[in-house]
Specification:
8 helices, Arc Repressor Mutant, subunit A, 3-stranded antiparallel sheet, 2 domains, mainly alpha, globular, single chain
Length: 166
């Protein structure tokens, strides 16, 4: 592998802070893949990326796609993809909202409830594993990521870039 200017063979790390989003994505993809392998060993068949959707529906009951997207802070199209994956597995069903017939509600099926319970137990173990991995970084990595998310929600990177242009 070719060495980059700082002696690292990792292109993203060698480029530094302007590539932080790429590093975060890579770390996220790795963690999700590892979680997926862990779930598979436990007999959980729901895709790892749908864990938050399963848990939301288990914890808060039927939701519209828009509500799910808002609560998870994910795009509507991405949530639709997750719902389709879960529906194909028989874990969710959709129905017309009796209070507003224009809305469709997504709810867990019995099989989805079972999967969500298995997922909850797995998430506890996963949380402990993440805690151990993040501890090695030294500082409060999760807290720092939460503060970054809050800051981006308030004005985002776009605001910083605009201020820099002035």
């Amino acid at each position: 592998m070719e060495e980059i200017r700082d002696g690292s063979s990792d292109f993203i790390l060698a480029r530094g802070l302007p590539f932080v989003a790429y590093l975060l994505r890579r770390l996220s993809d790795r963690m999700v893949a590892d979680a997926g392998a862990f779930y598979a060993r436990l007999g959980i068949v729901a895709p790892a990326r749908t864990a938050s959707t399963l848990r939301l529906l288990a914890d808060q009951g039927p939701q519209s796609v828009t509500q799910i997207a808002q609560r998870l802070k994910q795009s509507h199209p991405l949530v639709i993809t997750w719902i389709r994956q879960l529906a194909k597995l028989g874990f969710v069903s959709s129905s017309v909202d009796p209070a507003d017939r224009r809305r469709t509600l997504v709810s867990l099926t019995d099989a989805g409830g079972d999967e969500a319970r298995r997922m909850a137990a797995a998430l506890e173990r996963l949380g402990r594993a993440y805690e151990s991995v993040l501890e090695e970084a030294g500082d409060d990595v999760f807290g720092a990521l939460c503060r970054i998310a809050e800051r981006l929600d308030k004005g985002g990177l776009e605001g910083e870039l605009r201020r820099d242009e002035s």
